[in-house]
Every structure is written in structure tokens, then in C-alpha cells.
Specification:
Layout lengths: L2 H12 L1 E7 L5 E7 L2 E3 L2 E6 L4 H8 L2 E10 L2 E15 L3 H5 L5 H4 L3 H6 L1 E14 L5 E6 L2
Antiparallel strand pairs: 1-2, 1-5, 3-4, 4-7, 5-6, 6-7, 7-8
């Protein structure tokens, strides 16, 4: 399975994934995020500078994420651990496109105007089809 196919599953089939970061004390924190864009360049998502998540990414730009897709018999899991970087407003329109939750998460216009895009640009991943037994290890940005 090619990385592009895995990224398509992540973006189109999973959409929301659990992503973990660590705080200044090294304590882990997990939350759901919406994958805005996932392709051969990496995974793009957004958050507000007002969030603890944003502060954690700025202080220690490493994350782990996991997503699950369940369709009838098919169950797919994707895990990725890697490095992120803030890219600001670049790709913001792409990340926002088709996101039905952005107005609920950021109902305040000012908050929405201040969101920043982050890119998981380098990392190691694992795809596993639990029902079919397929397993693939892949890299992003290497």
C-alpha cells in the first residue's frame, strides 16, 4: 500500500483522529482533531493560539496520532508518531474546506481568524487492517 493511499484513508475515511502531545512537565494530553489535509507532504491541522494544545506544540513539537475507520467488515487503524511545525495561515483554506465542525469549535469570529495551521512533516507510521491482517510501515517526509 502506498503512502498516498494511507493518507487518503486518514483524510477521507477517518477525518477526526486522536492526537497526543506533552506539556512542559512531560505529561501526555490527548484530544480529537480534524485532519484538514493528509497527503505526501504530511498531515495538516489547525488550532488556536489560545489552546493548551497550541502551547504544547510550540514547546515540544512532537505528536502521536491514531485514527480508526470501521466500515461493515473492514476495520482499519492508522498510527503515526512524528514532528510538527507551525506553518501559520498557509493551507488554512484547504484545512477549513469541508470541515463542518469549525463553526462549532470556533464560534467566535476572532478565534477563527487567529487559528494557525500545523504540519506533521516527518514521522513514522503504521497501517493495520484488523480484519484483513494487512500491515504496512511507512514514513512521512523521509
Amino acid at each position: 500500500m502506498e503512502v498516498a493511499e494511507i493518507m487518503e484513508i486518514l483524510e477521507d475515511k477517518m477525518g477526526a483522529v486522536v492526537i497526543s502531545s506533552v506539556d512542559h512537565e512531560g505529561k501526555p494530553h490527548a484530544r480529537y482533531i480534524n485532519v484538514g489535509v493528509a497527503n505526501n507532504e504530511g498531515i495538516f491541522f489547525m488550532t488556536s493560539p489560545k489552546t493548551n494544545f497550541y502551547q504544547q506544540l510550540e514547546a515540544n513539537p512532537v505528536v502521536a496520532l491514531v485514527g480508526l475507520n470501521k466500515e461493515d467488515y473492514l476495520i482499519q487503524v492508522i498510527r503515526i508518531e512524528g514532528k510538527v511545525r507551525k506553518i501559520g495561515k498557509d493551507k488554512l483554506s484547504d484545512v477549513l474546506e469541508g470541515n463542518p465542525y469549525v463553526d462549532m469549535v470556533y464560534p467566535d469570529t476572532e478565534d477563527k481568524a487567529n487559528v494557525q495551521v500545523f504540519q506533521l512533516y516527518e514521522g513514522e507510521g503504521f497501517y493495520h487492517s484488523l480484519t484483513q491482517g494487512h500491515r504496512y510501515v511507512f514514513s512521512i517526509g523521509k
